[in-house]
């Protein structure tokens, strides 16, 4: 990687210096805001430990979820607690991101101390990449480290803007490791290459499929994204979560149903196998069930919500995984957090574990699903980035990486 990393910082650049470290602590939470998977926190430990050992004063900044303003459910306090346990040392936490309370807490830091700021997305300025906000963040520290691979595809104030005002701006060890691994693995992948896409961030990820069609031999779709493709073809989607349009930052609207049809046509033209669910597991509400309904075909009855792929789809997707030599997976096949609707996700995970293909699973919830399925050791790589790994594998330049100092 041609970017400077924390390894390049000598003792004089670290001891006593305030390091603003962007991490991706966007971890899955349950209904009572308890962390259900701490993979992303553990993944940031090497960089944090290296900075502590070097005598830096570590100021961590992260987002959690997609809040609209301050939201008590999405505070980072449980993360500070978990991080403290993992580091075996206290982690101070402030309830703001900028302002007097934060400045006071930063002033109190001693060499080797760790402070976690509040959820940076409580400020809309973060996602707008507002220069004044970025400047205020930058003013808290003497150097910037970006270790948030999972958020490196976002040009936000704490991932991109801040590096304009704070130098040195270097990559953390996780960011470096992810870029090196993914870069090498996909230089000339063994074919056939399969992309498995699912999850809930439909409007974000459906827009990545076009580029992906030029890189892969087959795509299988599960999760909520599947219903956009089915609806576009006139198949009933019942009460399932189904995104049909999205508004871009510039205010223009994208018709996702039209996009879905265009993608299906392009896949056909390019000879890319494109598989969609042929049956589903459903419920009449967003809740678990010991006995989910199974639809006889791809249509979802009125009032029913598809929460997982069905058994016939599962078999199709498992067969596709077994045929592939390289598999990239982002997004669970269903609401795997509910045991009755975890079958499709775990079946695909099991197939990956049993195959000897190169397998890369990426994303906060996808990594958590792999962990829950007990297959992490049988995968080639578990990336902390979902959207980020997809965009990187497509050959896009990640803004959070581009902003850093050259090596
Ligand atoms: N059929 C469905 N209906 C509603 N939600 C679904 C469905 N299938 C999957 N999901 C939800 O999708 C979520 C995960 O999607 P997401 O796109 O965030 O994946 P990810 O692996 O976390 O990737 P990233 O790191 O990019 O966020 C899970 O919480 C899961 O419950
Ligand atoms: O979970 C992720 O993919 C990252 O934390 C980025 O989150 P975002 O999609 O809300 O920007």
TrEMBL record:
Residues holding substrate: 24-26, 40, 63-66, 121, 154
GO BP annotations, alphabetical order: gluconeogenesis; glycolytic process
Amino acids binding (2R)-3-phosphoglycerate: 40, 121, 154
Pathway(s) the chain acts in: Carbohydrate degradation; glycolysis; pyruvate from D-glyceraldehyde 3-phosphate: step 2/5
Cellular component terms per the entry's GO annotation: cytosol
Key word ATP-binding present: yes
Ligand binding (ATP): 205, 337, 363-366
Main location: cytoplasm
EC number: 2.7.2.3
Primary enzyme class: transferase
Catalytic activity: (2R)-3-phosphoglycerate + ATP = (2R)-3-phospho-glyceroyl phosphate + ADP
SUPFAM superfamilies, alphabetized: Phosphoglycerate kinase
Family as reported in the entry's similarity comment: Belongs to the phosphoglycerate kinase family.
Subunit structure: Monomer.
Protein name: Phosphoglycerate kinase
Protein's organism: Gloeobacter kilaueensis (strain ATCC BAA-2537 / CCAP 1431/1 / ULC 316 / JS1)
């Amino acid at each position: 990687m041609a970017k400077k990393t924390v390894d390049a910082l000598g003792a004089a650049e670290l001891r006593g210096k305030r390091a603003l470290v962007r991490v991706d602590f966007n971890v899955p939470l349950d209904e009572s805001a308890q962390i259900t998977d701490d993979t992303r926190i553990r993944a940031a430990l090497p960089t944090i430990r290296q900075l502590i050992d070097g005598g830096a004063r570590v100021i961590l900044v992260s987002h959690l979820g997609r809040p609209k303003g301050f939201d008590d459910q999405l505070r980072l306090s449980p993360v500070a607690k978990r991080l403290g346990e993992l580091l075996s040392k206290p982690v101070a936490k402030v309830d703001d991101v900028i302002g007097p309370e934060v400045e006071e807490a930063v002033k109190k830091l001693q060499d080797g101390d760790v402070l976690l700021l509040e959820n940076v997305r409580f400020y809309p300025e973060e996602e707008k990449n507002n220069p004044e906000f970025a400047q205020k963040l930058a003013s808290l520290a003497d150097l910037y480290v970006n270790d948030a691979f999972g958020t490196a595809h976002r040009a936000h104030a704490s991932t991109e803007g801040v590096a304009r005002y704070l130098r040195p701006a270097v990559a953390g060890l996780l960011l470096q490791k992810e870029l090196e691994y993914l870069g090498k693995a996909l230089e000339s992948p063994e074919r056939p290459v399969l992309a498995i896409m699912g999850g809930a961030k439909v409007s974000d990820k459906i827009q990545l499929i076009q580029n992906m069609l030029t890189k892969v031999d087959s795509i299988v779709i599960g999760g909520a994204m599947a219903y956009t493709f089915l609806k576009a073809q006139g198949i009933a989607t019942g009460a399932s979560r189904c995104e049909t349009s999205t508004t871009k930052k510039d205010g223009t609207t994208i018709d996702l149903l039209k996009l879905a049809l265009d993608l299906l046509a392009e896949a056909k033209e390019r000879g890319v196998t494109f598989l969609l669910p042929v049956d589903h597991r459903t419920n009449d509400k967003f809740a678990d069930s010991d006995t989910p309904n199974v639809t006889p075909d791809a249509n979802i009855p009125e009032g029913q919500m598809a929460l997982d792929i069905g058994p016939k789809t599962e078999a199709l997707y498992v067969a596709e995984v077994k045929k592939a030599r390289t598999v990239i997976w982002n997004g669970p096949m269903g609401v795997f957090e509910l045991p009755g609707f975890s079958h499709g996700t775990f079946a695909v995970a099991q197939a990956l574990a049993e195959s000897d293909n190169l397998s890369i699973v990426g994303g906060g919830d996808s990594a958590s699903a792999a962990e829950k399925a007990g297959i992490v050791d049988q995968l080639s790589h578990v990336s902390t980035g979902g959207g980020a790994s997809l965009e990187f594998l497509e050959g896009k330049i990640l803004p959070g990486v581009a902003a850093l100092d050259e090596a």
